[in-house]
Amino acid sequence: MNTRFFVPRDTTALALGSDEVAVALGAELASRSLAGDVVRNGSRGAFWLEPLLEVEQAGQRLAFGPVAAADLPGVLDALQGVPGEHPLCLGPVDEIPWLASQQRLTFARAGQDDPLSLDAYRRQEGFRGLERALELGPQGIVDEVTASGLRGRGGAAFPAGIKWQTVLDTPAEQKYIVCNADEGDSGTFADRLLMEADPYQLIEGMIIAGLAVEATQGFIYLRSEYPAALGVLNAAIAGAEAAGYLGDDIGGSGRAFHLEVRVGAGAYICGEETSLLDSLEGKRGMVRTKPPLPAIRGLFGQPTVVNNVLTLAAVSTVLARGSQYYHDFGSGRSRGTLTVQLAGNIRRGGLVEIPFGATLRELLEDFGGGTFSGRPMRAIQVGGPLGAYLPEPQWDTPVDYEAFAAIGAMLGHGGVVVFDDTVDMGAQARFAMEFCAAESCGKCTPCRIGSTRGLEVIDRIIAREAPAQNRALLNDLCDTMESASLCAMGGLTPNPVRSALAHFAEDFG
Amino acid sequence: MQSDQVLAELLDRYRDTPGGLLPLLHAIQDRLGHIPPDSVPAIATALNLSRAEVHGVISFYHDFHSDPRGRHRIQICRAEACQAMGSRLLEAHAKAALGIDFGETTVDGAVTLEPVYCLGNCACSPSVRIDERVHARVSTDRFDALVAGLRGGGAGK
Questions:
Q1: Which among A263, A293, A327 is the end of a domain?
Q2: Is B32 within a domain?
C-alpha cells in the first residue's frame, strides 16, 4: 500500500495554508517519483498545530506540524532517514499529549480520515446507531436518549429525550427535524469542526431523530459564515442518498427521511430556535413567544425537534453504544463528555473533549498553555458573547453546567475566549451592548431599545459623567433587560456587562 | 444572460420551495451580485408575498444588499476572540488602508469592506474572510499583502 499523507481540509487548516501544503506535497512527491496518496482529512481540532501533516507508514501515523509548503522537502528527506529528528516531527499523532489526554466520544473520528468516505465512516462504527434505531422503533429510541441523560449542547442544556418525547406524542401529518448549525458564538467552532470532519455522524443522528419522532424531513440550518462546511455537508448528503441511508427507504426499512441544508444570511439571532424557524420559513428571523413550544408547533406550524449539531451527533453514539455507556461519562446532571473550545489569546487553541470535572484553570493551563501573546491572562469569557467575563479568582470553578450557573456564569456552547492583560474591559462591556443592538431581532423593547440605551450609558460611565448615577441607571436597565426580554439575546446581554463592571471596575473611567 | 432572464429562471426554480425566500435571495445575489430593488415586485408575486414582506427580509439580514458591491468582499471579524488578538487595530488599519468604512466599496470597485461576527476560526485569530476563503492570524502586513493580490485583478485566493 502506498504511503498515505493526510492534509486537513478544515476551515482553520485552510486558513493557515493547508491547500498550499497539499498542492506542494503532490508536486514534491511527483518530482521525487515517490508513490503516495494525499488524503484531505478533517481536523483533529489541535488548531495550534495546523496545518498538521500526518504520514501513515507501516500502520503508524507520524505527525508534523505546523507545516508550511517550504518545509516539505525537509520532511520528505527525514522520512527516508530518522523522521523523529526533523524539528517539526511531533511523533505518532495518537501520542501527542494534547490529544492523548482527551477523551473523544463525539469527536473520536474527527481528523482520522476523508470526511466524505462512507467506507471510513462504517469502519469506525458508522451507522451502527442507525441499525439499532431501526430495530428499536420510535419509543425505544426516545427511551434510550432519555436514559442517556443527553442534554442539548447548543447552550440551554435542555434534556433531549424530553423534547423528543413531546414531538413523538404530538400527532401530526408532517413532523420535522431541524439541526441548529447557526453556531454564532464567538470562540466556538465545535459544530463547524464536526460538520467538516465527520458529517455522516450528524446525518446519522438526524436520521435517528427522524425515526424516533416519526419525522420524514430534516433541515440543517447552517450559517453563511461557514462556506467550507456547506460544501462538505452537501457532498455528504449526496453520498448518504446514493448509499440508501437517506431517501424513501432507509437501508431497506421502508422508512423515509429526507435532508436538506438551508443557509442563513448573517443574523446572530437565528441561533435562537424560534427565530431560526421563522428564518427557515423564509421570514425575518424574529423570535416567537413560547408557548407554543416548537416541539408542538414548530416549523410550518408542525411538531419539530430543534437540536444543536453536537446533540444530534451524540445521538449516534448513544444508540451505537447504548444509553448506559454515554451516561457513565460525566457527573451529577452533566452527562457525557464536555466539549470546550479554547480561543482568543491562547497559545494552544482548539477543540478539547474531556470528562466533566476539570476546572477552568486546568483547561487554560494544561491544554491552553497560557496566552498566545505570552502576557498574563486577565479575563476569560465563557459561553459566547452573552457569557460572563470571569476574573482570576473564578478560574477554579469546575467546568460544568451547574457549577457555572452557581457563580452566575454559563457554559453555553463551550466557547472559552482568553484575554491578556492588555484588554480594556470597559470596551468589552460596551461591545456587549453594541453587539446586542446590531443583532437584536427588534421584536421586544428591552432588547431593541435597551441595548442602544445601554451603549450610551456605558459611554457616559467611561467618560466619568455622573458615574454613580449612571451605574445605578445601567443596573436598572440590566434588570429590565434580564427580566423582560423575550429571549436570551436581551436577557443575557447584561451578563458580560455586569461581570465586567463587578470584577474589572478599574477599567471604567 | 440578461438579469431579468436570470431572475425569471430563479423565480421558477424556487416558486414552490417551502420557505423558499432565503434560498431565492441567496441565488439572486450569487448570480447578480446584489438584489436589484426593481426585482422585489416580481419576487413578491412569485412567492405570494407582499412587497413589504420581501423588503423586510432583505433588510433584516446582514448578507443581503440592494446596491451593487465590489468585485471582492472582505469581511473582518469583530467578535470577542478576534478582539482578544487585536482585531480592533486590524479593523482601523483596514479602513484607513482602503479609505472606506464598513459597507462601502473602494473607488476602483475592487473591494467592499464588511464586518462579520465570527467565522469559526477563533483559535487562530484575528480572522478575515475574502470571498469564500478564511484567513487566519491576519496581521496588518498580511492584510496589506492580501489586498494587493486582489487589486491586481486576481481571484482573491
A1: A327
A2: yes
Nearby residues of A247 by Cβ (< 8 Å), 6 or more positions away: A241, A256, A257, A258
Q: Do B84 and A344 lie within an 8 Å CB cutoff? A: yes
CB contact under 8 A, B21 and A279: no
A167 and A89 in a single domain? The answer is no
In a domain, A445, yes or no: yes
Q: Are both B42 and B102 inside the same structural domain?
A: no
**Count: domains in chain A:** 4
Contact state of B19 with A262 under an 8 Å Cβ cutoff: yes
Which residue, of A272, A305, A327, is where some domain finishes? A327
CA angle B40, A301, A129 (to 5 degrees): 110
Do A152 and A235 lie in one domain? The reply is yes
The answer to whether the Cβ–Cβ distance between A265 and B120 falls below 8 Å is no
* Beta partners for residue A335, in sequence order: A330
Is A369 found in the same domain as A459? no
- Please, are residues A154 and A181 in contact by the beta-carbon 8 Å criterion? no
Which residues in chain A have Cβ-Cβ distances shorter than 8 Å to B56?
A: 284
Domain membership of residue A257 (yes or no) is yes
A72 & A209 share domain: no
Number of domains in chain B: 2
Q: Can you give the residue range of the structural domain that contains A464?
A: 425-507
- A128 class by beta-carbon count within 10 Å (0-12 exposed, 13-18 middle, 19+ buried): middle
CATH number at residue B133: 3.40.30.10
User: pLDDT tier at B155 (50, 70, 90 boundaries)?
Assistant: very low
Q: In B, which residues are within 8 Å of A267 by CB distance? A: 60-62
Model confidence pLDDT, tens digit, residues A27-62: 999 999 999 999 999 999 999 999 999 999 888 999
Q: How many CB pairs under 8 A join A and B?
A: 153
Cβ <8 Å between B81 and A187: yes
Residue of A nearest to B85 (CA): A345
Under DSSP, the state recorded for A247 is B
Could you read off the pLDDT of A299-329 as tens digits, one per residue?
999 999 999 999 999 999 999 999 999 988 8
C-alpha to C-alpha distances, A62 to A38, A71, A112, A235, nearest whole angstrom = 14, 15, 13, 29
CATH number of the domain residue A46 falls in: 3.40.30.10
- Which residues of chain B lie closer than 8 angstroms to A184, CB-CB? 117-118
- Does residue B157 lie in a domain region? no
**pLDDT for position A131:** 97
Cα separation values, A319 from A103, A117, A204, A212, Å:
19, 21, 10, 11
Cell numbers linked to A30: 511527483
Phi and psi, residue B5, nearest 5°: -70, -45
A283:B21 CB<8 A: yes
User: Are residues B130 and B106 part of one domain?
Assistant: yes
For residues A190 and A321, membership in a common domain is answered with yes
Residue B56 corresponds to which cell in the numbers above?
Answer: 423586510
Q: Cis (ω within 30 of 0) for the bond into B115?
A: no
Contact A16/B124, CB-based, under 8 Å? yes
CB A200 within 8 A of CB A236: yes
Query: Distance, in angstroms, between B131 CA and closest chain A CA?
Result: 10
Helices (H), B61-125: 80-83, 87-98
pTM of the shown model: 0.97
B25 in the same domain as B46:
yes
Amino acid, single-letter form, for residue A370:
G
Return the SS3 of A117: coil
Task: Considering only the beta carbons, identify the residue of A264, A279, A419 that sits closest to B84.
Answer: A419
